[in-house]
Amino acid sequence: MAFQKPSHTFTKIHLKGLRTNSLHILFTLSFTVFINTFSFAQELQKKKTSIPAMLVKDSTTVSIDSLQSRPLNTKEIDSTKQDSVKQNEFLKDVVTYKATDYVSINQKKQKIYLYNEAEVIYQDMEITAGIIVIDYSKNLVYAGRLKDSTGYSQRPVFKQGTNVIEPDSIIFNTDSKKALVYNSRTEQSGFKVYSPLTKKENDSVYFMKDARFTTAESEEDPEYQFITTKMKLVPGKKVVVGPTYMEIYGVPTPIALPFAFFPMTDKQTSGIIFPSFGEDTGNDRGYFLQNGGYYFAINDYLDLAVLGDYYTNGSYGLRLENNYAVRYKFRGNLSFRYEKLLNSERGFPDFSQSTIYNIRWSHNQDAKANPNSRFSASVNLGSSQYYQQSVNQLNQSNFLNNTLSSSVSYSKTFQGEPQVNLSLTATHSQNTNTESINLTLPTMQVTMNRIFPFAPKTGTKKGAIHNINFQLNTRGEYRINTTDSLFGKSEMFDDALAGMRHSIPITTNFKIFNHFSVSTSANFEETWTLKTIRRFYDQSLQQEVSIDQSGFDRFLTYNASASIGTTLYGMYNFKSEGKSPKIEAIRHVLRPSISYSVTPAFDQYYETFDIIDADGTTTDQVEYTRFQNSLFGSPGNRYSSNVGISVGNNIEAKIRSKDSTNTEAEKIFILNNLNFSTSYNIAADSLNWSPVRVSGGTQILDKKMSINFGMTLNPYALDSNNNLINTFNINNGGSLFRLTSANINMGYTLSNDSFSGSESDEDKASAQEAARSGGRTDGLFGKTEDFADRRLSDKDKNEKDKEDNNEFYNYKIPWNLRLAYAANYTNTKRNNMISSHSLMFSGDIELSPRWSVGASSGYDFLNKGFTYTQLRFERDLLSWRMNFSWIPFSNRSSWNFFIGIKSSILKDLKYDKRRQPDQSLGN
């Protein structure tokens, strides 16, 4: 029922005066007017369909959260009056909300107000803000900041899944998932974006207008940023921008792009690797593009990078880099590098060209993949002059390598009693100076575990009989000796050697007098060969002739040996009652031993031929064996009976601990080892004593300095022609021994963390690259680095460093130093000279939190000059990094300058300038 004003239904006839003669009729008409004033049910019923009726909540209804469902009338409604089309509900999940000050629900406006530290969680959406308004009649959520006398606070934070946006305000439609974001700030993998107006299209697409993006740490005052008119952001996948220009500290720069694409996925993706630009003035190769190519993300287990260089004079290079891995099975990498280098221009007198290549392969099998078999590879082979002629920056510290080596091996264990081990190994050794190459393709070795035929079935083995054991060993090789020029051609197999050796060592050991250990052994060896020789003297040619003979042949050798040794301990105590000296005791461990070995003469394998002159007179007789060029050598034809003497020493001390709370003394080594060895050949007719060899080593300065030394002492004298004679040197007016050679090597590593008990980490990437190339990993020959081709990242600084250091100075200055000293003395024939004498050093120091310098060099005291030198400078420019590497002299003189953004997303924004080494000086 509705109440209406009387004027809505009054008619003019009610207000006119009527003529009547009957009072009853007048009274009846007046009553009709009264009824018409308050009772208009028939006329108002027609308008009821256009005015919605207010729903009245039943008092018996149980009160529930108003956000879970719309208030419903509990009264029964005729089903024929309900709409047959089911409407979508606003909320499809439970809404969780809270606020610090208040939560207000306005049923009339169908809104919910949350004030101060408001938070709303709905499905995967989470909004925190100063104020939040939920309009469930329009399916909208409003979020904004709070304003007070100090300004704005509690900026909204919008999270949906892993995406986070921090705007000034946001309008979000819970039905369509679309949103309008004002002054948004978001970050994706270090990529920080600010936009005055952002339209969120769906869960994965954002459109931004007049956006700014950077990777700088400071969002309010970035040292650089890019300005773009429009941007499309797909979180976790890509960023596409329109016309863009760069600002540095708010100053526009001419660096601009019509459009740009930035991949942002966390997964491996294929893409272009932008090259470095520059000019090679060292060898007149002209302008170049270096380290450009394409990266193929084949799958989760395999990738491939194809890189290339091109010079305007026609030089070019190609590099293939591959990594592969299967978890819990194996991992490895393979690289092939090829360069064709042209120096100068064709037609000029100084024009030259060369072709070089290098192959590297590393494969490691997981130890848990197969306990009974294992495959591994470490390959580094190629042109002998590759590291000397390559212009790649990665090879700057490897050009001093004079050897290349490779090994590919497979091993298999056959379980049983006895156990049998099989291994196949292919090796490669290459001297880059002589360009000689030695290959074994392959080496097969079969070993059977030791068998103790007389050992008791239970209990321990005691005595010489119980400890008798033997084993079977077989080794076969196919060896190739060739040169760099013949490698890969059929001629390299012309002088190949093949052979096999079987050996049966029989040993036993026992103790006598409870203090002496005795060991005896006998060894039987049979050698097989497929190539022998026959030598004779051709009288018509008047020369010796050697003819190679193909076919199977063999020889058998054997020998026996025995040794006896013991261990003596000596202790000298300085500690006494009432005294506690710093050095409490010194202990000396002495290990003397005497050995004897005998080897028969195998004359049956030797033959002789006569040298006859033109007159038919025999002038000489030559003895030879047909096995002298076999793979494993030839049998000896000299009876040998040697007595060996050796003494090993170990000296250590116990000192009082610096920690007063520690009651135990600390043990330090004075000499880790000091060894003396010599031998006496009973069967020799002269020079029975061999030189005395002395070797030793120790570590000092808390094991940070290692010292190793050695010398050779000869008891025999020299004649006037500096030839060794069978006279003791002391009987010839000299000393007991004559020093013929000596050497000493020292290494020292120190850093600012050394005194605190911890060591700083080395540059692992540089060390790994140097190790793969066969170079030094300690940086003494310089560090392997290519600034334009590596992934730059911020240095890790722990919280303690941040507390100690500030922006302007370091409370603790990080530094490290590595030293290597080597000296060799030679006096074999009274030459009395130092053959080598040098000191090498490498170190880095961080002068300030963002400035660091380093150097690798050395000094040759013999030639009085500096060795290979590399100087390094690095400047951390917050979001950028600047590097400069300089080799000031030598035929590798060059420098490399780089400045670029650290972030991997914008790593292609860089400037790289380098001067290549002038290799013509080395030709």
Reconstruct the topology from this structure.
Blueprint: H1 23-38, H2 41-44, E1 95-98, E2 102-106, E3 111-122, E4 125-135, E5 140-144, E6 146-148, E7 151-153, E8 157-160, E9 163-165, E10 169-173, E11 179-188, E12 191-200, E13 206-214, E14 224-234, E15 238-241, E16 244-248, E17 251-257, E18 260-263, E19 271-273, E20 276-280, E21 286-299, E22 302-311, E23 316-326, E24 330-343, E25 352-365, E26 373-382, H3 386-389, E27 403-414, E28 420-431, E29 436-448, H4 463-466, E30 469-470, E31 473-483, E32 497-512, E33 516-538, E34 543-565, E35 568-573, E36 583-599, E37 606-612, E38 618-625, E39 640-655, E40 666-681, E41 692-700, E42 705-714, E43 716-718, E44 724-728, E45 738-751, H5 764-772, H6 799-804, E46 815-826, E47 833-848, E48 851-860, E49 865-866, E50 870-877, E51 880-887, E52 894-901, E53 910-915
Antiparallel strand pairs: 1-3, 2-3, 3-4, 4-5, 4-8, 5-10, 6-7, 8-9, 10-11, 11-12, 12-13, 13-14, 14-15, 14-16, 15-18, 16-17, 19-21, 20-21, 21-22, 22-23, 23-24, 24-25, 25-26, 26-27, 27-28, 28-29, 29-31, 30-32, 31-32, 32-33, 33-34, 34-36, 35-36, 36-39, 37-38, 39-40, 40-41, 41-42, 42-45, 43-44, ...
Total E-strand runs: 53
What is the CA-atom radius of gyration, in angstroms? Answer: 46 Å
General form: elongated
The percent range for strand residues is: over 45%
Q: Which consecutive residue ranges, at least 5 long each, have pLDDT under 50?
A: 1-50, 58-90, 755-762, 791-804
Give the N-to-C terminal Cα separation. 113 Å
Helix count from the secondary structure assignment: 6
What's the story with the biggest beta sheet?
31 strands, antiparallel
Summarize model confidence as the mean pLDDT.
81
The secondary-structure class comes to: mainly beta
Helix content: under 10%
